[in-house]
Design brief:
CATH topology of the largest domain: UDP-n-acetylglucosamine1-carboxyvinyl-transferase, Chain
Protein name: UDP-N-acetylglucosamine 1-carboxyvinyltransferase
Modified residues (2-(S-cysteinyl)pyruvic acid O-phosphothioketal): 114
Number of strands: 25
CATH class of the largest domain: Alpha Beta
Mean pLDDT: 94
Helix content: 25-40%
Largest sheet: 4 strands, mixed
EC number: 2.5.1.7
Shape: elongated
Bound molecules: uridine-diphosphate-2(N-acetylglucosaminyl) butyric acid
Distance between the termini: 33 Å
Number of helices: 15
Binding site for UDP-N-acetyl-alpha-D-glucosamine: 90, 119-123, 307, 329
Oligomer: single chain
Family: Belongs to the EPSP synthase family. MurA subfamily.
Length: 438
């Protein structure tokens, strides 16, 4: 549980960690490589630890020192990912692409739905089938294999019905070792997809067009060892930008990649906060005395990210006027509304639309986090609210924010984990030193 006393002014500098969603995809990508992979700027997160456990269960060797993760995938001993682990981390399904490409067979449990939506994997499966894989789904397990004496996927033309981040990543990884050329049309353009493509290219993969809606991959026979640094987390950076605005404070953040924050910065400026790019890797936010309403619609990149919707909703609860927030990416990602309303916000929901009427003040209250970004939104609301807020469900926060509490404390926020949560703290601290095993 987290206890926050609101209304402190924040001041100082925040160090942004490596991107969670890049790290998870790139760790899956390490399955493609029969040699050493050294990853730098790996964030210290429960999700990263879980992905490491899944790779270890498949037989990869791993060692982590600080933000450096060494992975060796010479001997993949297993083609089957364990259900207990996959069910806790949806992103681990993305391992199906590289496993199939490398071994010609992969068995990965269906990840199931989660707090923000049903999240099917049909686009991943159809893409793999287009590349010549046989796919059977039985007893909750996806069993994919390539028949024949030379079990190699074949290049194909794939059109995605929706620019799914995960499906683009799965298929791009699978195509790196396929026979011939693969084209992914209507591909996701998120920076994490480009980061994964850059990582694969650094291992010798031949990929063009990542970051656009058409990605072309020329399959190669094998990949080689690599040392690669993960991009900064644009969602963590966006969360701290909102923290500066909602507390009417001044914060600087680095490292960042400004282009990755275009949509969030545009909305902050529309709301009335000042955002100044101080250098190509550093941004400063200065919250205004009062902010104004704005409308937000979540969209695939470069549109406004769904992963920032909850945090901006917290800010808009205190911005003068009516804001309309439309969530188009996930069907159940407005569960934080009820909790924000408990803190005095005035939000009504109709389907996937939330109408936020700005109120002068939020009041601290006990609330429950329902998912990762919802928990960040509640922290932000707690920082701005009068009095004390307690947030339950901190395991969501630990999944995806690297030391959020410590980083906020460093810039003057008054918040602390309550006793009983020490276990989670020491668990995530152990990430820094653990040999994650073979
Ligand atoms: N979808 C399908 N079929 C598929 C795949 C996706 O219908 O086969 C639907 C999903 O149900 C969803 C939409 O497409 O409604 C978008 O899903 P997408 O596949 O793009 O999302 P994802 O790859 O599962 C990643 C991030 C999410 C982020 C989304 C959208 C990772 C590990 N996760 O998920 O991050 O919200 O892209 O940008 O990369 C988070 O960090 O809090 C988080 C949820």
């Amino acid at each position: 549980m987290l206890e926050i006393w609101g209304r402190s002014t924040l001041k100082g500098h925040v160090q942004i960690s490596g991107a969670k969603n890049s790290a998870l995809a790139i760790m899956a990508g390490a399955l493609l490589c029969p040699e050493d992979c050294r990853l730098r700027n790996v964030p210290s997160l429960m999700d990263v630890q879980r992905m490491a456990q899944i790779l270890a269960a498949l037989g990869l060797k791993m060692e982590q020192h600080g933000d450096v993760l060494d992975i060796n995938g010479r001997d993949i001993q297993q083609s089957q990912a364990p259900y207990e682990l996959v069910s806790q981390l949806r992103a681990s399904f993305f391992a199906i692409g590289p496993l199939l490409a490398r071994l010609g067979v992969a068995r990965v449990p269906l990840p199931g739905g989660c707090a923000i939506g049903a999240r099917p994997v049909d686009l991943h499966v159809r893409g793999l089938q287009a590349m010549g894989a046989d796919v059977q789904i039985e007893h909750g397990m996806v069993h994919a294999y390539v028949s024949g004496s030379n079990p190699r996927l074949k290049g194909a033309k794939i059109y995605l019905d929706y620019p799914s981040v995960g499906a683009t990543e799965t298929l791009m990884m699978a195509a790196t070792l396929a026979d011939g050329e693969t084209t992914i049309e209507n591909a996701a353009q998120e920076p994490e997809v480009t980061d994964l493509a850059n990582f694969c290219q650094a291992m010798g993969a031949r990929i063009r067009g990542a970051g656009t809606n058409t990605i072309i991959i020329d399959g190669v026979k094998s990949l080689h060892s690599v040392e690669y640094s993960i991009i900064p987390d644009r969602i963590e950076a966006g969360t701290f930008l909102v923290a500066g605005a909602i507390t009417h404070s001044e914060l600087s953040l680095s490292p960042i990649i400004p282009d990755h924050l275009t949509a969030a910065i545009a909305k902050l400026r529309a709301i009335g906060a000042k955002v100044i790019l101080e250098s190509p890797t550093c941004v400063r936010v200065i919250g205004a005395n009062s902010h104004v309403a704005t409308d937000i619609e979540t969209l695939p990149y470069p549109g406004f990210p769904t992963d920032m919707q909850a945090q901006f909703m917290a800010l808009l609860t205190l911005s003068e006027g009516d804001s309309v927030i439309t969530e188009t990416v996930f069907e159940n990602r407005l569960r934080h509304v009820a909790e924000l309303n408990r803190m005095g916000a005035d939000i009504r929901v109709k389907g996937n639309i939330a109408i936020v009427r700005g109120v002068p003040m939020l009041s601290g209250a006990p609330v429950v986090a329902t998912d990762l970004r919802a928990s960040a939104a509640l922290v932000l609301a707690g920082l701005a609210a009068n009095g004390k807020t307690t947030i339950e469900g901190l395991q969501h926060l630990d999944r995806g924010y690297d030391n959020l509490v410590g980083k906020l404390q460093n810039v003057g926020a008054r918040l602390q984990r309550l006793k009983g949560d020490k276990e989670a703290e020491s668990e995530s601290a152990s990430l820094n030193t653990a040999n994650l095993g073979g």
